[in-house]
Design goal:
The protein has helices at about 1-15, 35-45, 75-80, 140-150, and strands spanning about 20-30, 50-55, 60-65, 85-100, 105-110, 110-115, 120-130, 160-164. About 25% of the residues are buried. The N and C termini lie far apart (about 40 Å). It is an alpha+beta fold and about 160 residues long. Strand 5 and strand 6 (about 110-115) form a beta hairpin. The protein has four helices and eight strands; from the N terminus they run αβαββαββββαβ. It is globular and about 45 Å long. The chain has one domain: Alpha-Beta Plaits (2-Layer Sandwich). Strands 2-3-1-4-7-8-6-5 form an eight-stranded mixed beta sheet.
């Protein structure tokens, strides 16, 4: 019986493996290349970030992380805010291996908990990108679309509400 439970536990843990590949950040309030550089310098202070690709024209940043490290979206947001700007969009790209998601099925990824909003129950697999819809990760008018659903759940650090 113990062997059967162990095998079932191993299957469940393997089938729900996921790994964050990158984060795409769009900042707002930038007016020049110096603004972009200020955000870049602020982001480089986060020790778990491996690389940052900057697209000055679109005020966007593609961020990759050191392998096996936790990913704190709060640290990224705070770095942007410390540079004097705000986050207009934050998208997380991750690899999934048969992971069940749904409105009341949180998933844990590298130090963060992700709660899916407006997502029907489904199993995702392969590379998927989801958008963070919490306050301070979207413009206020965009966040309003999700505020009612998010208000029902507590907001804690490293807990993020996302849509596929």
């Amino acid at each position: 019986m113990k062997k059967l439970l162990f095998v079932i536990a191993m299957i469940i843990s393997v089938s729900s493996f996921a790994q964050i590949k990158s984060v795409s950040l769009t900042a707002s309030g930038l007016t020049c290349s110096m603004c972009s550089k200020a955000i870049y310098k602020s982001l480089t202070k986060i020790p778990d970030i491996q690389d940052i690709d900057v697209d000055i024209k679109n005020s966007s940043y593609r961020i990759t992380f050191r392998e096996g490290k936790n990913v704190s979206l709060d640290a990224i947001r705070k770095a942007v805010e410390n540079a004097g700007f705000s986050v207009a969009s934050l998208k997380v790209t991750a690899n999934f291996t048969k992971t069940a998601v749904g409105p009341d099925s949180p998933i844990s990824l590298q130090g963060g908990t992700y709660l899916f909003v407006r997502t029907p129950r489904q199993t995702i697999e392969g590379t998927q990108t989801f958008t963070v819809v919490d306050k301070n990760y979207l413009p206020a008018n965009e966040h309003k679309k999700y505020a009612k659903e998010i208000a029902m759940q507590t907001s804690k650090e490293n807990v993020y509400h996302v849509i596929l």
